[in-house]
Amino acid sequence: MEGLKFLIVFVVLALASSFASASDPSPLQDFCVAIKETDGVFVNGKFCKDPQQVTEKDFFFSGLNVPRDTSSPVGSNVTAVNVAQIPGLNTLGISLARIDFAPYGGLNPPHTHPRATEILVVVEGTLYVGFVTSNLANGDNRLITKVLNPGDAFVFPVGLIHFQLNVGKTNAVALASLSSQNPGVITIANAMFGADPPINPNVLTKAFQVDKKVVDYLQKQFWTDNNN
């Protein structure tokens, strides 16, 4: 009986370990401050600075209190704070972002983070947020949404398409924490219609079930925006 209990515990821990490894690898030392020098060699993450040369600057970022310009076509501005901005985040499996939204419809358009779950907290304003599930057993995709006010938090599971829309009359600000030092982002419309080189219009015409003129128009608009 004791042997069976041990086996069950061992299996549970093994499963937990496998789930944990689905995110960024755990660090093998206190920190591994990233350096840019690679000598043409690429690794899954960043090379480490000599710990004796590490300073407080490697763990610091300033300016998240500063409002950003939201005059972009979608009316939002994302300030990322990942390993590219804070080298000390290397191997730590976490990053941050500030999102500013213009009044009356500022949008952080549908996108995914292929390597991270996101938890978002509203600091100012009112946001309509949501994500779309992967294909269910019946082939459908469920939309899960919520209107958030200051102090509210919402989770976007890793890899799922999600968005945030300012439904208020004033500027909105949110902070997001992500479970990767480099979560990545794929903005759906930009990826589909602004890819370089462009996706064959016949693919998009059939996938979206629209006239080729619509695809041509969208590719022209997004390709120009993405490649200027």
UniProtKB/TrEMBL annotation:
Source taxon at top rank: Eukaryota
Alphabetic keyword roster: Apoplast, Disulfide bond, Glycoprotein, Manganese, Metal-binding, Secreted, Signal
Annotated S-S bridges: 32-48
Binding residue positions for oxalate: 108, 113, 118
Single Gene Ontology MF annotation: manganese ion binding
Pfam families listed in its UniProt record: Cupin_1
Tagged with keyword Protein transport: no
InterPro entries xrefs: Cupin_1, Germin, Germin_Mn-BS, RmlC-like_jellyroll, RmlC_Cupin_sf
A GO cellular-component term linked to this record: apoplast
Subcellular location: Secreted, Extracellular space, Apoplast
Residues making up the signal peptide according to the UniProt record: 1-22
PANTHER family: GERMIN-LIKE PROTEIN SUBFAMILY 3 MEMBER 3
Similarity-based family: Belongs to the germin family.
Role noted for this protein: May play a role in plant defense. Probably has no oxalate oxidase activity even if the active site is conserved.
Name of the protein described by the UniProt record: Germin-like protein
